[in-house]
Amino acid sequence: MEFIRATVYGFAKWHDFQIDFHPSELQIIYGENESGKSSLQQFILFMLFGLSPKKRAFFRSKTSGKMGGMLTIVEEGIGEYTIERVDEVNNGYAKCLLPNGEEADEAWLKRRLHGITRQTYQSIFSFDALDLTTLKTMNEEDIGDILLGVGLTGFTDIYAVEKRLDTKISELFKPFGKRPIINQQLDYLDDLTNKIQTVKSHEKTYSEKKTKLAEINAQIKELQRTIQVEKKNVSESEKMRQALPSLQKLSKYEHQLATFPKVITFPEDGIKRLESLKENILPLESELQVLKNNVTSYENKQAELKELLLKSNTYDEVKQLLETQDSYNEDVKEIKRLEGWIKEQEVGLKNELLAIDTNLKPVDLSDISLTYQTENTWVQLSEETQQLRIEKEKLAQEEAVQKKQKIELKNSLNKCNEYRLPAKQVDELSHRVHDYNNYHYRGNEGKQKTDFEAIKNKRHKNSLIIFSGSIIIGLLFGLFGFFQDYTWGYGVMLASFGFGIAQWIIGKRSTETIEQLITNNTGDSNNVMVTLEEKEEATQLLSSHDEAVRQVETIGEKLETNKIEQIKWQERHELMIQKANRVDEKVTHQRKLYPILETIDISNWPAFYHAFKSLLQQNLEWKSKKQQLADVKEVELNHREFIMRFLKDRNWESKYKSIDTGFAFLHEKVEEHDGTLRLLEQYEAWKKTANEQVESLKKKLQVFQREQLNLMKVAEVETEEQFYQKNTLLEDEKQVKLKIEEIKEQLSMTYSEDKIVEFAADSIGEITDIEEKQKKYQKNLELAEQKLEKEREQFAAIDADLAYMEGSDEHSQIMHRLHIETAELNKLGEKWAILKSAKEMLVETKNNYRDKYMERLINQTSDYFVMLTNHAYTNVYAPSKNQPFQVESANHLRYTVNELSQGTRDQLYIALRLAISEVMSKTHNMPFIIDDAFVHFDDIRVEYMMDLIASISKKRQVLLFTCKKGLIKDLTASNITVLHESIRKI
């Protein structure tokens, strides 16, 4: 596993930060104190193992709204995948983005970590300066736990089982405890033994308790009789005390009833009927008065409104004027619209004239006119200019290509001439080949002579054909140039003649050479002997010479063609210049006719024509609108003056400040007049309706008033007040009778009817006398009950003891319980023994696993320690139960870890941590993190340390966090990440 990249959304001081790591090499992360190195380490651990909500809140960035980030990892067998954790998402659980596009969860990540926890990772693959101090106290068991934690995926389960075994063993038994189950069972057995001894001593007191029980029973019966008598007395006194207030009220109400008249005349439900009549009469009377007031108000209002009406002729004139308002408003709107349009158009004309970079003004446009022929001329000149520009560029490109081709051909010709041999050398080489052939093939002289003759004839024939063809082609091009007046035709003719003559000369020389060979072959039979190597060398040189001659001929042809192309180019160039001059004359003529074109590029003339023509059209429209504006203003002025005169004639001129307010005033006058007429009609209708309602209400009132007089007559009263007083007297009599009946009904539950009449007729005593008697009876009752309760308690205790003594089998039960609890103790002891054996087996298993890796671990530690100390120490010995780490020096002296210097102890601890990670790397190949662990190292130790870490980093990724610049002087910048910012600088 190797880290590729870390992206921080927000964590401690970091937010929106990214750092790239270099796989399979040492990665140094440098930063000053408080620059965020530790925070970056914690972020990596957070990405791998997560954090609790409380810890996430502690590391939340104070400058970022998010807490979390991503860590990209590459791992063999999977490839590159990314771990993402965000505090607010999924409660901080990891989301793993796999290379195949799928997503994995926290459980998948834990499986990839093979059971390594945050604590295990920090114990094996990470350390800092603070961890160096733990070496003094580290013992054999600590190292074993570290090895077990890294080597076994389920170490946390093993550790939990061990803890549970210890807990259960402690729950069962402790040598000096009371809470464990076995300890409690032993105490319970002791209690049972003591109870058996107590039961035996209780059997002596049985006869004494039997006599005492009979005496107490007689006393209880006597007390029960006394209590019954006292309860009856208390009950009678309580009844009298409770009934006394009711009896007193009964006597009072009987005397009050005797004061009322014997007969009271009053109509049935008289009050309700009277109130109902009043409820009907009062609204009618109120409504009648309101209607009368309304009629008077309507008549007064009508008189006031008639004074506000306009005269008939004035009203008609105002209506006629208002009918012209819409026409006037349309004129005003048209004036504003025309003024705005004219102003906007004038500004637009000026801006467009400025945009085309001319000195013309809008007034100057009236003197300019454009025709259809002008447009065609400008378009034609623009197109011709564009064609000339394209043709000029094309000629320039062709010229460059021809010049480049000519230079390349001359260079090739010079190079080929270097391979051509002098004529003398060619003859010598030819003779050498000829001599070799004569020497070895003298018997074939006749055949060779025939072959040479055939070659000579073929070459002579080819030379004649090429020469004749070149002359014919040259004559054709010469005639073409003569009749078409093209000079390049003459050039092609000369080139063709030259080519034909050159081929004739070359063919003639070749024929002469072959004839010489034939002569030499037949006449010279005594030539010097030539070896095969010399003959092959001569043949090769002649072949190269012939090839060079052929290439020279080809290049010569191409040079002639290039020359012809240059002649053609020159003619096209002259024609282009003539055409450009003619176009310039036309352009100059147009610019004289239209000086405005002086500053405009010819290519823009067609577009300018349409734009300028549009300007001329806009100018004509602008002048037309100005005249239309003047006409509308004149109409508006006449209308306004007429309105003003009308208002002035009627002394209304002070009512307005403008023509609009004048119209508004006239509208108000008309609306007031119309509204007044409508109000007059409305008031007349209201008055009529009110009079009709008055007559109707008077008839309704007469009916209710007659009914009211009938009620008074039945009650034998004349006024409403007397009617209410008589009703009150009748209600009081009913209430007294009702209360007398209620009291009698209450007393009937306690006393008979005769007894109640007797109490009402007799004089009843005071309540204080009755309460005194009741207290006396109650006190006697309480004393008797208390004494009875005590006697009963004593009786129950003695009776229970006797019953227990007569039928108790407590002794046998206790003995039975003693045997049961003893068996339970044996079961608990067996369970304790099983748990104890399991704990010992688990400890033995851990020790065996530790011993399996301990030797490799110590050997690897020794190797690293020897490298770090430059062979000053040769061996490291593991700690035992009572002995810490020991090291052996080069002179075979042993030292405990406490006897070493601080720097050497740090070297030993670092060697141990590196060795543990190396031993476990086959199972867990994870990056190693070191944080400023060289505090006590001098420069030499630092150098040894860096060499060791650099060698380890070739096999696994190493991240070194440091604030020391001395560690990065000799390393390339590609492996160094500098954290520039510091919290104390912010």
Describe this protein's structure:
The protein is 70% helix and 7% strand. The chain has five domains: 1-114 and 927-986, Rossmann fold (3-Layer(aba) Sandwich), CATH 3.40.50.300; 127-171 and 835-923, Rossmann fold (3-Layer(aba) Sandwich); 207-266 and 730-799, Helix Hairpins; 268-368 and 603-714, no CATH class; 374-602. Helix 8 (206-257) runs antiparallel to helix 19, helix 9 (270-306) packs antiparallel against helix 18 (659-714) and helix 22 crosses helix 23 (902-919). The chain has a six-stranded antiparallel sheet. A five-stranded parallel sheet has the order 8-12-13-3-14, with helices on both faces. Strands 9-10-11 form a three-stranded antiparallel sheet. Mean pLDDT is 76; it is low at 148-156, 523-527 and 982-986. With 986 residues, the chain is α/β, with parallel strands linked by helices.
Summarize the structure.
This is YhaN AAA domain-containing protein. The chain is α/β, with parallel strands linked by helices and 986 residues long.
Task: List descriptors.
986 residues, alpha/beta, Rossmann fold, Helix Hairpins, 5 domains, six-stranded antiparallel sheet, 14 strands, disordered C terminus
